Amino acid sequence: MAFECQKDTEDNLRNTSTNHLDSSQAGKAVSDQLNLTSNRKLEPLESENLQGAFSKLGIHSTDLFLKSSRSFTDLPPALVSEILNFLDPKELGTISCVNTSLYKLASEHHVWKEFYRERWGHPVNSIGLGQDDKSWKELFVERDFRSKTIYSGSWDMTVRLWDRASLKCLKVLMHNDWVWSLVPHETTIGSTAGSSVHIWETNTGNQLAVINGAHGGNVYSLARSHTGKLLFSGGEDGSIHMFEITGNFECARKIATWIPHTGPVHSLAFEFPWLVSASSDGRISLIDVRGLLKTKKRFSTENADSKVM
C-alpha cells in the first residue's frame, strides 16, 4: 500500500540499533525544517522581545540557540506524538520509514485508532490490543486493503479479486463447481463451490483449506465471525453448520449443526452472539451461539437456543 514501508526497509528498521537520524542523510531533511534559523541577524528590538518572551517561559535564549542543531527526534516522545496527530495515514506511514524511533512512535501511535474510527466507525466488538492482538495500524491497513478490493464469485467457477480504482482483475481463484457464496476476512476469503467450502489466501491466491461435502447438495451461504475463527455455512439441505478454524487455517472442525429450515438456506449473517439465517421456506432463524462458545461441546439443534419467525 502507498503508506507502508518496503519490506526490506521495515526489516532494516527493526534490526538497527541507532535511534537518531543520520545528520548527513535522512535527518538533514527533517532537521533543516525544524531547526531554528540562526542565519538571519536579529534587530536589537526584536532580539530583546524574544529574550523577554523566553525568560517568561523559563527558557534562556542563548541555550536555545546553542542547541538549535538538534533534530526532530531529539524532541520528547510526547511532543513528537502530538505533532504526528497532524499527519494523514500516508504521511504517518512514510515518516515511520525514517528511523527506528519514528517507526515505533508512528506504528504504535493512537492516531491509527482515530483513522479507523473516522473512516469506518468504532468496531461493534471491542478490540483488545494485548500481546497476541493486532495493533490499530495493522487493523487499519487490512481494512483499507479490503475497502480497495472487490470480490466476485460466479457460475463460471471462479472467484475474482478486482482493484476498485482501476477495475482490473488482480487474481482468479479456480473452483470445480459453481460459486454460490463468498465471505472475505482480512487477507483470506471463504467461498463455496457445489457442496464444498474453500478458504483462500488473497495475497498469494493459495488454497489454505477445503471442507469437502459440507452439506447434502449445494452450499448456498457463508458467514464468519469477527476474528475469522468461526465459519458458518448454510446449505440446500436446510441445515446450518458451524466450523472452528484452528491453526493457520489448516483445519476446520465442525462443532455445531442446526436444522431450523425446511428449505435451502440462502443467506447467513453473524453478529455476536446472533446468527441469522434466511431460507426459501419463507422463515428467518435467529440462533444464540453463546452457550456453544462457553461449553465448547458438540451440540445438535435441540441443545442450542434458536428462534424461528
From TrEMBL:
Protein's name according to its UniProt entry: F-box/WD-40 repeat-containing protein
Ranges: WD repeats: 212-245
Residue ranges constituting the F-box domain according to the UniProt record: 69-115
Compositional bias annotation for Polar residues: 14-29
Keywords from the named record: WD repeat
Residue ranges, annotated region (Disordered): 1-29
Biased composition regions of type Basic and acidic residues, renumbered to the chain: 1-13
Organismal lineage: Eukaryota, Viridiplantae, Streptophyta, Embryophyta, Tracheophyta
